[in-house]
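REVIEWER CHECKLIST
Item 1: Sequence provided? yes
Item 2: Single chain? yes
Item 3: Sequence as submitted:
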Amino acid sequence: MGVANVSPSIESQREILFRADNLQKSFGGVHAVRDITLRIPANVVFAVIGPNGAGKSTLLNLMSGVCQPDMGTMSLGGANLVGTPAHRRVRHGLARTFQKIRLFKHLSVLDNVVAGFHTHHDIPFIQYVLHGPAFRRDNRRCRDEALEFLDFVGLAPRASLIAESLAYGEQRMLELARALATMPRLLLIDEPAAGLNATEVEALLERIAKLRAKGITVVLVEHNMDLVMNIADRVLVMDYGQHLFEGSPMEVQNHPDVIAAYLGGDVR
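Item 4: Structure as written out by the authors:
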């Protein structure tokens, strides 16, 4: 629907980190994403909500490079993302977690996070073969920093365990820690509260708020409306792959089209 979907005050008040114009993606005859335009400012939590099949995860797949758009443009900090594969987007500062957990399940919890540092090694290639002093220093640095990320998500005491031995909610937090190890500017999180109990959701809320305070922009796809309304600065509502409404959590809760399409009542 073009730039008219975007609140002009958002673009004028803050630096825009991520831009997308007229994104479209079809799978066969299914229009998963239709004419989506986004402006996501730096240092916010931007939530994407909508009923099942609304195109939310496809939008995240387009943003992260899992698939490429049929039409439209995207940029992160001015860098063009269209045609750029997912692993190169990481170097631009974009990280992603998935609705279906993707861990190295037979590696230790610590080694899963160390794997996230692959884009930030700064040693000569020969050091990987010889394991000389520079390699050992870099390895110690990565492991020390990985422990800090594990402490952030509450998993430092479990660093030596095999990843598949963790409980479901812990595996979600491990995936978050590994994504943070890539040092993202923009973090995409798909259904982070799925399968979490109330205590774990509360801890997740606190961690997302801390990430925003550290200057990380978070794009959140989530069905847990309590979480969304308590943490999001802006909310995009999608329906049938299209932009339905964008606004503050309060505006979303009170918008009649949103209530009819998705919320189904008062969520305050």
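Item 5: Key structural point noted by reviewer: The chain has two domains: 1-93+184-268, 104-183.
Item 6: Recommendation: ____
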